[in-house]
Amino acid sequence: MNVTPYPQHTALSLATSGIPVLPLRRGKVPFGNCTACADNACGGRPNMKVPGPCRCPAPCHGWAAATTDPAVIVSPGWAAAWRHAVCVAYHPGGAGLTVVDLDDADAIAWARTALPPTRTVPTTRGEHWIYRGAMVSRNAVRPGVDIKSVMAYVRWLGPGTGAIAALPDAVRAVAVKEPSPARRTPQTLSGPLQGGRGECPHRTPAFLERGVAMAVQRITEASSAVHATVYRTFLAVLSRHGRCGCLTDTHVARLFTAAQAKGETARHCTDAWINARTTLGL
């Protein structure tokens, strides 16, 4: 993997440009939570859509630790992490950006025909295409393609070349692409599905808002079996609200935020969401 010389200096430079940063250890992964935050004993971050450290002095909670505060970046609590860091990451969603991570030549070839040109950054095996605008992150939206934005981190590999274009509808569209038919085989549910087949059952927007708020509360109050609770909650939300098209990226981001505040990773959230959709045949 690429190693960033003087990662703390790079982080400070990015932070002054309004890009939230965090250190990565070998394996291009964030540092584990400190003792005070182990297993989310601290309760996690209450609003993980806003980048920045929790109250402990260490860079805990993965992407949510990303900060633009120079005082935090040079603080003693982050010093040990920088001494062992091999590169710098940033939270694209916190900077108002979306990164289309193209992992190989085939993925790059697809992007050149399907997406508008924008700033590109070479990676070890492919390219990062950077767009202006944030959205919910999605992994494996097609072979070799991940979308990193809100609740995700990306390695800093340099400024890249080209002007940054506005986030196009084509990226949003591929992010909601349904699983392949082989993965969409509906499974038997323990209860009946609610909601109509494409007909909106919501008399007022407050109905949907209340449902999402209750789902967030259910995840937040989980004291054990968090992974299973997240999946069951996603399943319940989709069974009630998933067919009429009323769920937005903002609603999904709230659910993912609650799950990650309980210790779930962005990848686990994405997998649970896809599995729930697959179970319901959506």
Task: Describe the secondary structure blueprint for this structure.
Elements: H1 7-16, E1 21-25, E2 29-30, H2 70-73, H3 76-84, E3 87-90, E4 97-102, H4 105-114, E5 119-122, E6 127-132, E7 138-142, E8 145-148, E9 154-155, E10 165-166, H5 169-175, H6 205-220, H7 226-241, H8 249-261, H9 266-280
Parallel strand pairs: 6-10
Antiparallel strand pairs: 1-2, 1-3, 3-9, 4-6, 4-8, 5-6, 7-8
Helix pairs in contact: 6-7, 6-8, 7-9
Characterize the structure shown.
The protein has 282 residues and is α+β, with helices and mostly antiparallel strands. It is 35% helix and 14% strand. The protein has nine helices and ten strands. Helix 6 packs antiparallel against helix 7, helix 6 runs parallel beside helix 8 (249-261) and helix 7 (226-241) crosses helix 9 (266-280). The protein is globular and about 55 Å long. The two termini are 38 Å apart. Mean pLDDT is 81; it is low at 46-50 and 177-198.
Listing every helix as H and every strand as E from the N terminus to the C terminus, the arrangement reads HEEHHEEHEEEEEEHHHHH
Write down the oligomeric state: single chain
Straight-line N-to-C gap: 38 Å
Shape category:
globular
Rg calculated over all Cα atoms? 19 Å
Strand residue content = 5-15%
Number of strands: 10
Percent of residues in helices:
25-40%
**How would you sum up the major sheet?**
6 strands, mixed
Structural class: alpha+beta
Mean pLDDT: 81
The count of helical stretches stands at 9
Low-confidence stretches: 46-50, 177-198
